[in-house]
Write a structure and sequence with these properties.
FMN binding, globular, 8-stranded parallel β-barrel, Aldolase_TIM, alpha/beta, 353 residues
Amino acid sequence: MPETSDRKDDHIRIIEEEDVETSGSGFADVELVHEALPEIHRDETDTTTTLLGHELAAPIVIESMTGGHPNTTKINRALAEAAQETNVAMGVGSQRAGLELDDEGVLESYTVAREVAPDAFLYGNVGAAQLLEYDVADVERAVEMIDADAMAIHLNFLQEAVQPEGDVDGRGCLAEIERVAEGLSVPVVVKETGNGISRTTARRLADAGVDAIDVAGQGGTTWSGIESYRAAAVGAERQEAIGRLFRAWGVPTVVSTLEAASQHETVIASGGVRSGLDVAKAIALGASAGGLAKPFLSPAGRGTDAVVDLIETLTLELRTAMFVTGSASIPELRSADHVVLGRTKEYLEQREH
């Protein structure tokens, strides 16, 4: 099995077995102001929302996780079946292996998503660094692979810098993102992979014409940490040490959400989102939806019902937050009163200087 495919299998194993969580997303510093007289019925709160033209039952995104190795097919099947059943959004992992390898098992790890979720909002995934090698037609192949409703272009340069075999040429990517955003048949989402997107980068992406920004901020799964474990396994001691050093690097998710939302109307908040309350906080900060990845991985291993159960729990947590802020709908939640405290407040104040 080629290197790209094996790497996908390594990633899942490390996430399941090792400590790859960081704190510091900032959600603990955000408090929604309680409404003691909500004057609404909890069960009539409307969690539906629209994301890139698609109506979802709740503003929840199963973030891009995997694909590219036959061992990941089961995971994507369970995630996609759950997305179909509950009508939330889902992304697949990087499709590089599917585009570059002539292997039916690898291809199935992606195509299974649309096969079992004919109506779900699914988005594909390619890396910004790969756009230097791909033309728009190549990215269209990734769209066609899963009949995608949108295409994510992921930014993972810190992860690449820690990989012994990483692609560390970041030159020219913005121009390539603009080219794809202009020429692709579906909306383009640009997403980070755990290190956040600053205000200035969000502005550059907005000017490039991307349709949404997924901040994937610091405070959840650390890909630098994951690659540090991989480097250790092959004796790459220097890369292992760099991975540890940059383990908690990045713009915290709350800061990144606020900064990106000041520059673009469609922002997905991810990176350390661990509850429906976090999703509610993200929406109050200006996000259109909240995304989770790692929390879905273990349920996906147990099957579709476990994933559905988690989505239903997240939705009830979100609905409860709406109820006790007097928010009858997602647009009302977006304007819910909130305060930002602690380190996150200090960070934001320093950013204003």
